[in-house]
Design goal:
The protein is of the alpha/beta class. It has one domain: Rossmann fold (3-Layer(aba) Sandwich). Helices cover 30% and strands 19% of the residues. It has helices at residues 25-43, 79-91, 120-131, 166-169, 189-195, 200-218, 242-246, and strands at residues 5-6, 16-21, 50-55, 96-98, 112-115, 137-143, 147-154, 220-221, 223-229, 234-239. Strands 4-3-2-5-6-7-9-10 form an eight-stranded mixed β-sheet, sandwiched between helices. It has a two-stranded antiparallel sheet with strand order 1-8. A hairpin with a 3-residue loop joins strand 6 and strand 7. It is globular and about 75 Å long.
């Protein structure tokens, strides 16, 4: 049996309100593609394209140059501001940058949040801001040294009808206890490359880009994520299929059957 997810009708009649959290490795690779998607949507008749706000409190370090979408002249400046200003100037977008982290008081009002973060604490904060706001899609883009996942889910709605988000499928990715204690930056680019593949962020960004393009272009999805393993040279799709989700421990709730009324016997 083939399952299919369909985009909400409202996202075909107005601009997509998108929030990107994280403008580092994956974020800096994905955001230019998001600007290309914006132009493609407008060219194909979409009424608004993408309205985007980027959150990141980090600044560019020397070790980021070459590994992320930054240049030597960028060192010391805020990543979110740099990328947003660059895209606004070169691509004609009118996007916004927020040079801060997501906090407990944030309430996201948007259609989609794209998480390009590398900690469980940040994922938990994103979901909290979405649950306290309007919900919407959550596109999680996470990676380790040479592998990672892209998972598109929905934060609100009936469980039987919505796509499970990354926290439904992988609860451990929301547990701050799993964050590594040592978060000190690498001393050099060479040191950083010993810890992480030069290609993994681009590979994850491409999978997210293709998923969003498919969602816009066809209005439907037969898969809601992908797993990338560069060491094995393998990419595997996550289908829109409850039986596939069950393999990760996520089960759809069984609908309750209404109790039968007892017939009254006539006296």
């Amino acid at each position: 049996m083939t399952f299919e997810h369909r985009i909400p009708a409202t996202m075909t009649t107005r601009a997509w309100k998108v929030i990107v959290v994280g403008a580092g490795g994956t974020g800096s690779a994905l955001l230019p593609n998001l600007a290309r998607l914006h132009h493609a949507m407008l060219a194909l008749g979409h009424p608004g394209g993408i309205e985007c706000t980027v959150y990141d409190d980090d600044t560019v370090s020397e070790t980021n140059v070459g590994r992320q979408g930054f240049y030597p002249v960028d060192v010391g400046q805020h990543k979110a501001t740099l990328i947003v200003n660059r895209l606004n100037n070169l691509m004609g977008t009118r996007w916004e940058a927020q040079t801060r982290r997501i906090g407990g008081r944030d309430r996201f009002v948007c259609d989609m949040v794209i998480g390009c973060v590398d900690t469980r604490t940040a994922r938990k904060a994103i979901l909290g801001a979405m649950q306290g706001g309007t919900g919407g899609y959550y596109l999680d883009c996470g990676n380790e040294s040479d592998s990672g996942q892209v998972v598109l889910g929905q934060v609100r709605g009936k469980a039987a009808d919505r796509l499970p988000h990354v926290g439904d499928l992988f609860p451990e990715l929301l547990d701050p206890k799993g964050d590594k204690a040592d978060t000190a930056p690498s001393c050099s680019m060479a040191d950083a490359l010993q810890k992480q593949s030069l290609v993994i962020n681009q590979a994850i960004a491409v999978q997210a880009y293709n998923l969003l393009w498919t969602l816009f272009r066809t209005g439907t999805l037969k898969y809601c994520g992908a797993f990338v393993n560069l060491a094995a040279g393998r990419t595997s799709a996550l289908p829109v299929d409850p039986s596939a989700w069950e393999r990760f421990g996520y089960k759809l709730p069984v609908p309750k059957t209404p109790a039968k009324r007892k017939s009254r016997k006539s006296a």
